[in-house]
Design brief:
By secondary structure, the chain is α+β, with helices and mostly antiparallel strands. It has 18 helices and 16 strands. The strands form three sheets. The chain has a nine-stranded mixed β-sheet with strand order 1-4-5-11-10-9-6-8-7. It is globular, with a radius of gyration of 30 Å.
Length: about 500
């Protein structure tokens, strides 16, 4: 105890020195002393002081949570495969220089690994930059792929909203030289399919184009050098009111108030084809080559989305900016809408659950000859979706099965372990998902209770009389109905009773 007191006193001394702004060398000396004392204390009782926790911004997933998670992954993968995608994987860490300079203001969130005297490495921040590196390295100019894997960001996590330091991304990308807006429209269709399939509630997919944004900035009088930084301010409009974004542009980023006001006139507009037509007639925007190109493509995109029958959920929104530096054309973001009550005209956004866009220059940044491979892709925000579904399951108290066992092999009398093991082996070999309790002579009641607790629908009961008659008693747990089934027909009977309707 005396040692702990001494450590506390030393910590207090260090705090006082820092408060009094003492000489840095003196502070450093006392900090070293404090660390030595702590290390000594730890060595003495290290065995007792071990803290059991997951690192900040990470979490474990219990079987129930994993069951929900697998359901979501299956829905997403089914959709990706329906659209003809192949699958790839890449290393969890990349060379540091591969990731540097690709993420704009977010680069500070990259996890750098400790220098081990070899290559300088960083954990991947997303799946898009590794994908571009993969294409350039393997000289691939045409692929439609999906990739589901963990990425890492040194963010300050808000875990309740599904933001973590380690999290999954589910990406679908189409790389290759194709006619304009056809692959882009398919990416939006995929987002629409997945969000509809998962039944997350009402959503809207906001669409914009980097060229329209850049053209808008140019006609509003934003200097070229400020495009990207003003873009990241505009990107905050879903979280902050226009007044705050405007004061950031003018106060922190040095934009003229006139330019900011011009931007304000545009970024508060959202609509559909009618808005695109209106902007094509806009005296300022229609004179800008970039904006005109972007608006022409946006019109085409909306025509394809009309053919797909999904324009009801799409909003052309001039405030959508997406902060990442590598986007060059269409950008989009799917937002879940929450109806607060019946009197609200505008539904409230709960947060982004998918995003993506076109990035035609990224592969060229890795190619030694600068050969470009046009790409468009979408990333599904699995963690946010998972948070919502998990909360929903908890609220509804829905019972989630964590196993897929179809049948429990049980016995009603003693000394039947050998027969149970013989039968379960037959079932396993026939591809039936089956379990047996690991006891020589379990009570029938305990075996039936196990089925109730875990949701196993059927019990195959082995009994002496049944063995003589060449039958097995099959019991339906939910209805308690029992039927005798000939042993050779048992597999077929189990399959029939447990096949999903």
């Amino acid at each position: 105890m005396a040692e702990e007191e001494a450590v506390r006193a030393q910590a207090e001394a260090v705090r006082r020195l820092k408060q009094d702004k003492a000489d840095p060398d003196e502070i450093a000396k006392e900090v070293v002393k404090l660390l030595e004392m702590k290390a000594q204390l730890g060595a003495d009782e290290g065995k007792h002081k071990f803290v059991l926790k997951t690192p900040k911004g990470t979490r474990d997933y219990n079987p129930k949570q994993m069951a929900i998670r697998e359901r979501v992954f299956n829905a997403i993968i089914t959709c990706f495969k329906r659209h003809g995608a192949e699958v790839i994987d890449t290393p969890v860490f990349e060379l540091k220089e591969t990731l540097t300079g690709k993420y704009g203001e977010d680069s500070k969130l990259i996890y750098d690994l400790k220098d081990q005297g070899g290559e300088l490495l960083s954990l991947r921040y997303d799946l898009t930059v590794p994908f571009a590196r993969y294409l350039a390295m393997n000289k691939i100019t045409n692929i439609k792929r999906y990739h589901i894997a963990k990425v890492y960001r040194r963010d300050n996590p808000a875990m309740t909203r599904g933001r973590y330091r380690e999290f999954y991304q589910c990406d679908f990308d189409i790389a290759g030289q194709f006619d304009p807006m056809i692959p882009d429209a398919e990416c939006l269709k995929i987002v629409h399919e997945i969000l509809s399939d998962l039944q997350l509630g009402d959503f809207v997919i906001k669409v914009n184009d980097r060229r329209i944004l850049d053209g808008m900035f140019a006609v509003c009088g934003v200097p070229d050098s400020k495009f990207r930084t003003i873009c990241s301010s505009v990107d905050k409009l879903d979280k902050m009111p226009w007044e705050e974004v405007r004061s950031e542009m003018v106060g922190e980023k040095g934009l003229s108030p006139e330019a900011a006001d011009h931007i304000g006139e545009y970024v508060q507009l959202h609509g559909g084809l009618d808005l695109i037509e209106r902007l094509l007639q806009d005296p300022k925007l229609s004179q800008n080559k970039l904006a005109k190109e972007g608006l022409g493509d946006m019109k085409l995109l909306f025509e394809y989305l009309t053919l797909f029958g999904i324009t009801g959920k799409i909003s052309f929104d001039l405030s959508l900016a997406r902060g990442l530096d590598y986007y060059t054309g269409v950008i989009f973001e799917a937002v879940l809408l929450q109806q607060e009550n019946d009197h609200v005209e505008e539904p409230v956004g709960v947060g982004s659950v998918a995003g993506g866009g076109r990035y035609d220059g990224l592969v060229g940044m890795f190619d030694p000859k600068g050969r470009k491979v046009p790409c468009v892709g979408v990333s599904i925000g699995i963690e946010r979706i998972f948070s919502i579904l998990e909360q929903r399951v908890e609220a509804s108290e829905e019972k989630i099965r964590t196993t897929e066992t179809q049948v429990l092999v049980a016995s009603a009398q003693k000394k039947l372990l050998e027969e149970r093991l013989k039968l379960i082996s037959e079932l396993w070999d026939a591809g039936i998902k089956a379990e047996v309790l690991y006891k020589k002579n379990p009570k029938l009641l305990n075996q039936l209770q196990y089925c109730e607790d875990t949701g196993i629908p059927l019990v195959a009961i082995v009994g002496e009389q049944e063995l003589k008659d060449g039958v097995i008693k099959l019991r339906v747990v939910a209805t308690r109905e029992e039927v005798n089934v000939r042993r050779e027909s048992l597999v077929e009977e189990i399959r029939m009773r447990t096949s999903r309707p």
